[in-house]
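Follow-up to my post from last week.
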Amino acid sequence: MSGILYGVGVGPGDPELLTLKAVKIINNCAVIAVPKNGGALGDGVALQIAKSAVSLDGKKIIELTLPMTRDKAELQRHHDDAAECVAAELRAGYDVAFLTLGDPTIYSTYTYIHKRIIKMGLNAQFVAGVPSFCAVAARLNIPLTEGAQALHILPASYKGTGAGLDMCGTRVLMKTGKAFAEVKKQLAGRGMLKNAKMVQKCGMEGERVFENLENADEDASYFSVIILKDGEEKL
Amino acid sequence: MSGILYGVGVGPGDPELLTLKAVKIINNCAVIAVPKNGGALGDGVALQIAKSAVSLDGKKIIELTLPMTRDKAELQRHHDDAAECVAAELRAGYDVAFLTLGDPTIYSTYTYIHKRIIKMGLNAQFVAGVPSFCAVAARLNIPLTEGAQALHILPASYKGTGAGLDMCGTRVLMKTGKAFAEVKKQLAGRGMLKNAKMVQKCGMEGERVFENLENADEDASYFSVIILKDGEEKL
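User reply:
Got it. Predicted complex:
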């Protein structure tokens, strides 16, 4: 019998935001897989979060090389290699927990491995987690959506980010990272810096909270989430 | 010393999707507050989910009457009364956990109470939870977003739902409930029924999974989430 691959969302940073299910699955898996991007920010973070909540003693930990590159052929080769590495464990009968930040269905590298494992005829499942934007809203002590407002989650790498900023409802900018200067320029051009709130490294060491972006410096890390609201409903 | 109000997200249905933090906060609160809407679907669901994961023995459970009505004055009166009821417990020194489905910052009645408690000069905090759409994507075994796709969360009551359906990226329709027939018509008019997936009562008793909406009957409950994707990325 082949094992099952679980894409386990460990939440955005605070180990207490792991779900009971994530803890159980991690406990039950003999093999833990974690992405390794070669020194970039975020390497090993999902593993550290999990370790703070669950003992990984006695488990086999495999690091999958998944660099962040725009070279499609190189990306595919790394995804294929990582999937083969996971598949070998599954075929040997071991269940594997792939740890991923936030929720595994939202902008996760896990997706690339998941699809390949399914295509190989093996079993892969998502284990839902708390997305970063929910924790960021909680940290800012504001609701994301009220009444009939829409909620738009926009990756800063998304080509329509500018247009996205003009949508009605609440807009969440994720993955700003290197694009922060450009995002700030787009916000400034629309007079939105005052209304934009941001949390960096929410729930992690070095967390920073910005009630607006007027004086935000530009060393935003990969773990920044910006929230723009249409204004508050009256009580 | 006044107590603290916590808006605790208990996740979408599966009690295992509670976070460690939610369990801890519920354990530590002497008073548990739950919304009661007077017989409508969903009454008592958050309480049942929490009870399946944590013992509530010995705690005071208060039911807050929060009916679903479009009469603004009536709504405000109920929100005011509920906030007063919670404030009385806080002023008596008790911490209160208000249980809410999914994540408390996304379309939660809790928000109305939270804002009033803050306005009274008392302490209120959000405790992030797993939103229903993450669990629904996991149940369907599909990623919500890949690469640079945007993610649009649209309440079916949102006046721009039609326009929302035409956005690029992944569209999630929440709170379809009574509007399901209308939503289905909007989807049919765009040739989107085949591409729309839905889960009703995800993780709860009576869960139903629809790989498309071509033959979906119209007794969709309040707990339905529809996901529309732009198509899959190639491996």
